[in-house]
From TrEMBL:
Any Pfam family the entry gives: tRNA-synt_1b
Enzyme Commission number: 6.1.1.2
EC category name: ligase
InterPro entries reported for this sequence: aa-tRNA-synth_I_CS, aa-tRNA-synth_Ic, Rossmann-like_a/b/a_fold, Trp-tRNA-ligase, Trp-tRNA_synthetase
Family, as annotated: Belongs to the class-I aminoacyl-tRNA synthetase family.
Record organism: Tepidiforma bonchosmolovskayae
Protein name: Tryptophan--tRNA ligase
Length: 341
């Protein structure tokens, strides 16, 4: 049990989870949960961009936990952790910040893009915001999250890779300079590194409102798929290019009948297939995927006490490891002042 390698990964409690989270990350978590000792984190220290909407964060903690249970994560085998219930994360982030030059944050492409979007929202729907200090340093908090359980593997979507690189660099620096405390963790990107939004935007994302949520009911999925962007305008039976039609991106991501799909793609490019046929197929594919999730979600939703217990015991498990790691860190840095006399 204890000689299994460790996984640490997480999600921010800012809303219900969507197909992008599933294909980019969660699917790998479910697949790997029994081979690794897993710590799944609800990263509630990292929601500074939602600080004016704490009720939403509070609600989303439960939504995320329910979504995890819905997709089949097992809270007995893996620890479901609320970040702020393990305040050692904040301490470790503070100490690691001693060794990270600001230039490494300035260069981080994901952070740069997120800050730019915050300062200059392109859709005009969100008001322009100044970047909170805690937003600028959230990658350091993420480094602390990963290093805290001395994780070996971090299954995430593609946008998180710069943060994992930062983590590896921090572990190397710390180990070299003080003591070998942290393994250098590897990133593992999901089958679909970045799922596009239903509006055709490059990323399905809560903040853009272009998601299909894991908890959407069958009717909602059908409605969202009907409204999906289906490539450049084209008569129903005019051949098109699959790569220009995001419906195919979704079918490639989720349709288990790959043979049937290959045939459909050939037909689309030679004789033409109406978008309605594609959308009907996609609706069925997605609802088949989501049905078992909906069932499990309903089970736990009727038993929220089980969800609460999973979060409490998972956070407690993490806390034990966190104390162990912090002892190692204090020892490596020689910060045990009171032991002198
Ligand atoms: P959103 O972008 O929808 O507002 P988020 O960025 O706040 O969500 P995170 O908690 O940062 O969500 O992401 C959780 C995990 O899901 C990360 O590993 C991230 O890479 C992955 N992920 C999120 N959206 C997508 C997507 N569209 N495609 C693939 N992976 C994704
Ligand atoms: Mg994100």
């Amino acid at each position: 049990m204890t000689d299994r390698k460790r996984i640490l990964t997480g999600i921010r409690p800012t809303g219900a989870l969507h197909l992008g989270h599933y294909a980019g990350a969660l699917e790998n978590w479910v697949r790997l949960q029994h081979d690794y000792e897993c710590y799944f984190l609800i990263a509630d220290y990292q929601v500074s961009d939602y600080a004016d909407d704490i009720p939403r964060v509070r609600e989303a903690v439960w939504e995320v936990a329910l979504d995890w249970l819905a997709v089949g994560l097992d809270p007995e085998g893996s620890a479901f952790v609320i970040e702020s219930l393990v305040p050692e994360h904040a301490e470790l982030a503070t100490l690691l910040g001693w060794f990270l030059p600001v230039s490494m944050l300035e260069r981080n492409p994901t952070l740069k893009a997120e800050m730019a979007a915050m300062e200059n929202p392109e859709d005009g729907s969100t008001e322009r915001k100044s970047v909170p200090v805690a937003f600028y340093t959230y990658p350091v908090m993420q480094v602390a999250n990963i290093l805290m359980p001395r994780a070996h593997l971090v299954p995430v979507g593609e946008d998180q890779l710069p943060h994992i690189e930062l983590t590896r660099e921090t572990a190397r620096r710390f180990n070299r300079r003080f003591k070998e405390v942290f393994p250098e963790p590897e990133a593992l990107v999901g089958r679909v590194p970045r799922l596009v939004g239903i509006d055709g935007n490059a990323k399905m994302s809560k903040s853009r409102g272009n998601t299909i949520d894991l908890k959407d009911d069958a009717e909602t999925v059908a409605r969202k798929v009907r409204a999906m962007y289906g490539g450049p305008p084209r008569a129903a039976n005019e051949p098109g290019r699959c790569d220009e039609n995001p419906i195919f991106l979704y079918l490639r991501a989720f349709d288990p009948d790959t043979g049937g799909l290959a045939e459909l793609e050939r037909e689309y490019e030679t004789r033409g297939v109406p978008n309605k046929v594609l959308k009907d197929r996609l609706t069925k594919v997605l609802n088949d995927l989501l049905d078992p999730f909906r069932e499990r979600r309903a089970y736990y939703q009727a038993r929220m006490r089980l969800v609460r217990d999973a979060l409490a015991s998972g956070s407690e498990r993490m806390r034990r490891i966190a104390r162990e790691t912090m002892d190692m860190v204090h020892d490596a840095l020689d910060l045990n002042y009171l032991e002198k006399y």
